[in-house]
Structure formats: structure tokens, C-alpha cells
Design brief:
58 residues, mainly alpha, 3 helices
Length: 58
């Protein structure tokens, strides 16, 4: 069924998107722990400083 295949692809893409953003969030504390500043982490991950700060305590 074309509808089922499309839904499956959509769900797969959503899972991949979530995994990507989780990997970004997981990298923040590691990079900060390596001595990078909030600004450098934000620049490296294409995030705002606020996003880095919010995810650094998780």
C-alpha cells in the first residue's frame, strides 16, 4: 500500500531527525567539558548560546 510505505518513510525520517538532535544535545556537555566556551560550542554546532546553555545542564 502506498500510504503505508509513505507513513513508514515519514516515521523513519522523524526518528532520524530526533536521533540527530539528540546527538547534538549529547555533544554539548562533552564539548564544554573539553574546555570550549559556550560561544565556541554554539558556533561549532550552529546553535545559539542560549540553546547551548539550556542543554548544558541536562
Amino acid at each position: 500500500m502506498p500510504g503505508a510505505q509513505q507513513r513508514e518513510r515519514s516515521e523513519s525520517a522523524e526518528h532520524a531527525r530526533q536521533a540527530y538532535f539528540q546527538a547534538i544535545r549529547d555533544a554539548i556537555p562533552r564539548l564544554l567539558g573539553m574546555g570550549l566556551s559556550v560561544e565556541k560550542v554554539a558556533e561549532a554546532l550552529s546553535l545559539s548560546g542560549e540553546e547551548v546553555s539550556q542543554n548544558s545542564q541536562e
